[in-house]
Amino acid sequence: MEKKNLDLAIQLRHELHAHPELSNHEVWTKQHLIDFLKENTKLEIVDRGRWFYAIYHSNVGKRNVAFRADFDALPIEETIELPYGSKFPGVSHKCGHDGHSATLAGFALEIDQLGSDNNIFFLFQHAEETGDGAAECAVFIKENNIDEIFAWHNMSGFKHNTVFVIDGTAHCASKGMTIQMEGVPSHASEPEKGINPSFAIAKIIDAIPGFVDPEINKGIVLCTVVQVDIGAKAFGVNASKGSLRMTIRALYEEELDRLQKNLEDIAKAEAGKYGLKVRFEYQDEFPETANYKESSDKIRQVCKEKGIPMKELTEAFRGSEDFGHYTKLTKGSYCYIGNGENYPNLHSYEYNFRDDLIETGVELFKGLAEQ
């Protein structure tokens, strides 16, 4: 990677880090990235509102290959001292999306200067953390006849500057599920005159271990109770409203769907037994992220050709990633570059993206651009 381009990418990363914005609110971030590309490249820019992409039009134009980076931040306070630390209280780039976008922008500089036999698309995506971003941006795939798409994530606990690859499922599917129940209030001394949702919600919670039993599922299936909210602190009132909030997760989407149906079915059955109203809400929905072996093999080949250290992942991550929306529509692969075995975890106060990963990411992308 040209030193000038690397220096520009690192400077850009620090500017993005200082101005973090939460999912679906990345106004400054998006515009700053657009301005950077307009100032430093001749690429076509396509503004799609909350997200955008840039295009390198090849004179040869063999294939349409896309590369994606996310650019949202997290609601976490910046507590470490950095010369480019977050200017916004309670918001910071503690997942490294500033580094992902700086890498994609640095890659754009190199392709703009060096060219490619393929048409290269640089997709800058909002709202990865909530799962909204890729769901909205997925139209990009068919609209541009994308043949293949790649992305990477920095990963703590993994050998520094080493690329990690996996075929098939790379991230579990997940979603936030809320079961709302409503009965009838009464005086606490006359519970028989009301309808309290506590007992129905307790039955649902009690059934969860049976639904996630490894003996009846082919992959990981998890249901994590994150909040139970029933009634109010009023000792004279029999509770009449309750909410059960869970994160449901599975290695395979078909098993996530089955877990969701099981939870809905038992909730409806218990509601009917007690005479409760019941409704369901869903948010932070992530698909299963599955890699194509053909695409992962290209990552392996580039690492071999360029001498980039590479290792195989032996199992999928439980945490979710919205990149799966793209690989439902075209070939692609999502890989990882290690921060170091003892580096602070993602989403922790001590975390900060390592600038030296940018060049590794750019060189990997450059190799993939010519595959």
Automatic annotation (TrEMBL):
Domain Peptidase M20 dimerisation per the UniProt entry, residue ranges: 170-274
A Pfam family of this chain: Peptidase_M20
Cofactor: Mn(2+)
Manner of cofactor binding, per the entry note: The Mn(2+) ion enhances activity.
InterPro entries (alphabetical): Amidohydrolase, Bact_exopeptidase_dim_dom, Peptidase_M20, Peptidase_M20_dimer
Keywords of the record: Manganese, Metal-binding
Sample GO molecular function, one term: metal ion binding
Binding site for Mn(2+): C95, H97, E129, H153, H347
PANTHER family given in the database record: CLAN MH, FAMILY M20, PEPTIDASE T-LIKE METALLOPEPTIDASE, PEPTIDASE M20 FAMILY MEMBER
Protein's recorded name: Amidohydrolase
Organism: Bacillus salipaludis
